[in-house]
Predict the 3D structure of the following.
Amino acid sequence: MALDPSITGSSDWRTELPTLTARTVTLREPMAQDLGSLVDLLSIGDAARFGLDEPVTDVAVQQFIERAAHERAAGLAFTYAVTSGAARTVVGLLQVRQLDPGFEVAEWECTLVPSVRGSGIFIEAARLVGSFTFSTVGARRLEARVLLQNGRGNGALKKLGAVQEGILRRSVRRSGAYLDQVLWSILKEDWGDHWMSTAPRVH
């Protein structure tokens, strides 16, 4: 079933990142008022790091929010705060970074608060961001690196149609230990019309 997101904002994502909406989530660029929520999110033991070094502090997260806007303006990356519910509570972050100068190859990283994991929010947010990345940004390949022991994360990527390309041995350090990651990829032609919005509404 095709997802039909509502897209608001500038057509040039480098100038203004558009808001993406679906049934249960709204995605928007992180803002200064998200500081407390993002500190809590990024302090979770298994949270994705998004380039942050431990420990997670108010200053480090404020710099992350500012850097996300600068990198988006430079066309290097874009970051979405995942919000849910009538109160638009921040429940996650999803970032896409270019791996080549033309943004044809990119890597995405996502983390969610434990209370919404397994609820379908990741799949819905990933559909929105994947479609935006392939159709608007123009990427042809999206990569993800997930800890080998993260069964839920690896299962979610498989559900999206990602292909497991291999194991990256001891490729990331967490809490002083080097851990294996699974390398996943999705190609634009793999994504297909079943995820891509056929008629996004622009406001």
About this structure: The beta strands are 6-8, 19-21, 25-28, 77-84, 89-98, 105-112, 141-147, 163-174, 177-187, 201-202. The chain has five helices and ten strands. Helices lie at 35-42, 58-73, 121-137, 151-160, 188-195. The chain has a mean pLDDT of 88.
